[in-house]
Design a protein that fits this description.
about 300 residues, Nucleotide-diphossugar_trans, 2 domains, 4-stranded mixed β-sheet, single chain, Glyco_trans_2-like, Glycosyltransferase involved in cell wall bisynthesis, Spore Coat Polysaccharide Biosynthesis Protein SpsA, Chain A, 7-stranded mixed β-sheet, alpha/beta, transferase
Length: about 300
């Protein structure tokens, strides 16, 4: 295997070197692609110093040296990456020594185009710990609940399996064949300033043949600190609903253009419309409407005269 590790860099000076150092020991990692996104701290200077640390470390910026967000930054990384396999690492996170253990075996099967695993948590500040635990309780491992591959991964991510699969795996735990991304012309949605990773993962699960790897223990660690965006938004607040609406709108438009299974299209459509209604009617009405929609999906079709469900 030969792997390009893509690290988007924005205001991560405190953590960046640890992230890079965690990827260097792997023989399979042939290059580490740093994409600096106009940080306001000294991240760029640290990137420049890291380039001299190891010839595998490469530094790029956007052509205009501007700030374009995580989606565009990862896309630039995909453009610059030259290896057969792609993996991702956030600049405030790090890999564990078992990061590619599953990949070494699973990718011997040429049918497999992507492998994903579990991510753990490291608390880097007391404020970060409190915010994270307030939102996610005592969840210390982000993972899926049972092994899966192929179509079952997409169904699991959309909540369409008979058992609860888990609705997310972290981008830091994904390794994908570059040819699979080229084949499907898949990139991150640059219009999403947040949730580009969730959008990308669901689309990836449809376009590519994914298989779970190590899901019972962490293969990477998410650094939780004072400035994590994931902990700042209160669930079902207007800001949360707005961001979820944009995510599911992106997925709805994509699903409308692709021959997804009918139950997958339906789930995406109903979730998109539930957040659409939440923004139009407010939280209390949204919550009641959402419950009614889940019980009876025909409500949307009848009340708003949508025809999407019959496509």
């Amino acid at each position: 295997m030969n792997i390009s590790v893509i690290i988007p860099v924005y205001n991560a000076s405190e953590f960046l070197e640890k992230a890079v150092d965690s990827a260097l020991p792997f023989e399979e990692v042939k290059e580490i692609v740093l994409i600096e996104d106009q940080s306001t701290d000294d991240s760029l200077e640290i990137c420049r110093k890291l380039v001299f640390k190891d010839p595998r470390i490469k530094l790029y910026q956007h052509p205009d040296k501007g700030n374009h967000g995580a989606g565009a930054t990862r896309n630039l990384g995909l453009e610059k990456a030259g290896c057969e396999f792609i993996s991702f690492l956030d600049a405030d996170d790090h890999y564990l020594p078992n990061r590619f253990d599953a990949e070494r075996e699973i990718f011997k099967d040429q049918k497999i185009e992507g492998v994903f695993g579990a991510i753990g948590v490291e608390y880097l500040s007391e404020k970060g710990r409190k915010e994270f635990q307030d939102k996610f309780k005592n969840v210390s491992l982000t993972t899926v609940n049972f092994p899966a591959e192929g179509e079952e991964v997409l169904k699991g991510l959309l909540g369409l399996t008979s058992k609860v699969f888990g609705t997310f795996f972290h981008l830091n735990t994904l390794t994908i064949r570059k040819t699979a991304l080229v084949k499907s012309n898949l990139r991150f949605n640059e219009n999403l300033r947040v949730h580009q990773d969730s959008d990308f993962i669901i689309k990836l699960a449809y376009h590519c043949y994914l298989k779970s790897g190590i899901i019972d223990k962490a293969i990477a660690i998410r650094g939780v600190h004072d400035n994590n965006r994931i902990t700042k938004i209160i669930r079902y607040s207007p800001q949360y609903n707005q961001r979820q609406f944009l995510l599911w709108k992106s997925l709805y438009e994509w699903a409308d253009a692709n021959p997804l299974p009918p139950d997958g299209k339906r789930k995406i459509y109903l979730t998109y419309k539930s957040f659409d209604l939440s923004l139009k009617t407010g939280f209390n009405k949204y919550f009641c409407t959402f419950l009614e929609v889940i019980k009876n999906p025909q409500i949307l079709k009848t009340q708003y005269r949508f025809t999407y469900l019959n496509r």
